[in-house]
Amino acid sequence: MSYPRVIENLIEHLTRLPGIGRRSAERIVFHLLNAPADYSRLLSESIIDLRSKLRFCRICNNFTEGEICPICTDITRDGSIICIVESPKDAIAIEKTGSYKGQYFVLLGAISLSEGRGPDDVDLTKLIRRITDSSQPVREIVLATDADMEGELTALHLIKTLQPYGVKISRIGIGLPSGGAVEFADISTLTMSLNARREVADNRTPAPQVTPATMVDI
Ligand SMILES: [Zn+2]
Predict the structure, then answer these.
(1) pLDDT of the residue at 2
(2) What's the CA dihedral at 129, 134, 135, 137 to 10 degrees?
(3) Cα of 178 from ligand 1 centre, angstroms
């Protein structure tokens, strides 16, 4: 005997979520049935709001409910330094350190050969518009992509693309374990990594060659 269709439907949807198997889905369904009806309504409204109200900042691609995110509109932040991260989760991890007061640019995905995402799939249009905006000069770009192969490849692509704009480019990395993801780094490691960022290119140095040696090095 199987559950009524409404239960089976919900179980099926829940099992599509990461880390949720059928047993967990059944537990969630029975939890919802035992909880006040209002809770199910609030939960479903939150899920709908996630897709209908959340958008990406027009300037930096970070999460926002308006057109421009709170960080881009915060006049107390240093607009001359931009930290480039792979996802909004990374920006949140860096914000938790409390040691970074510049702005961000979120790539919304790194170069990934295994997933068929090449350099052309990383949209830098907004970033270049921001760098070339003379009303808000940028003096430093901090590359805070992950310390794995995808993150390193993406950092190299960014160096190559951004170097002609004559902006100092630095890379976090010290303290981050090889292969480490920014979003999972603990606060002290991330703070150390940001403070110890090293310059990888500016307008006085030639663009590095993309070779396996430099990929490991950077
Ligand atoms: Zn923004």
Answers:
(1) 84
(2) 90
(3) 29
Supply 101's token pair: 């007061």
Q: In this predicted model, what pLDDT tens digit does every residue of 177-202 receive, in sequence order?
A: 666 677 777 777 778 778 778 787 65
43: CA distance to ligand 1 center in Å?
27
pLDDT at residue 213 in the model: 41
Q: In CATH terms, are 5-53 and 68-217 the same topology?
A: no
Determine the distance separating the centroid of ligand 1 and the alpha carbon of 197, expressed in angstroms.
22
What is the CA(147)–ligand 1 centre distance, in A?
24
C-alpha pair distances (Å), 185 with each of 79, 130, 133: 25, 28, 32
Ligand 1 centroid to residue 106 C-alpha, Å: 9
- Summarize the chain as % helix, strand, coil (round to 5): 45, 15, 40
CA of 57 to the centre of ligand 1 (A): 5
Q: Tell me, in angstroms, the distance from the centre of ligand 1 to residue 195's CA.
A: 22
- Boundaries of every domain in the chain: 5-53, 68-217
Sorting pLDDT into bands at 50, 70 and 90, what band is 175?
A: low
Domain 68-217 has CATH 3.40.1360.10: yes
Ligand 1 centroid to Cα of residue 199, in Å, is 24
Q: Is the CATH number of domain 5-53 1.10.8.420? A: yes
Measured in Å, residue 40 CA sits from the centre of ligand 1 at: 32
Contact between 30 and 40 under an 8 Å Cβ cutoff? The reply is no
pTM of the model: 0.76
